[in-house]
Amino acid sequence: MPSPRSPQSSKKPFLHKPLSRPSARSTRPTVLHLCSDLEPGDPGRETVDLAVLAQRAGWRSLIASNGGLLVAEAERAAVRHTRMPIDGRGLFPHWRVRLKLAALIQREKPALLHAHGIEAAACAYGFSRIHHLPFIVDFTRPLQDEPRLRRLFKQLGRTSCIVRVPSEFMERQLREFGWPAERLRLIPPGIDMKWFDAGAISAERLQALGRLWRLPEQAAIVVVPMPFTEGGGHEFLLKALARLKRDEIFTVMVGDNCPTPGIHEILEDKVERLGLNGKVVMPDFCLDWPAACWLASVVVAVNDAPRGQNTELLAAQAMGRPVIVTDCGANYEMAKGGETAWVVMPNDDALLAEALKGAIGLSTSDRVGLAARTRDFAIGFAQDKWATAMLALYESARIPAAKANEAKAA
Question: Against a cut of 0.90, is the pTM above it?
Answer without folding.
Answer: no
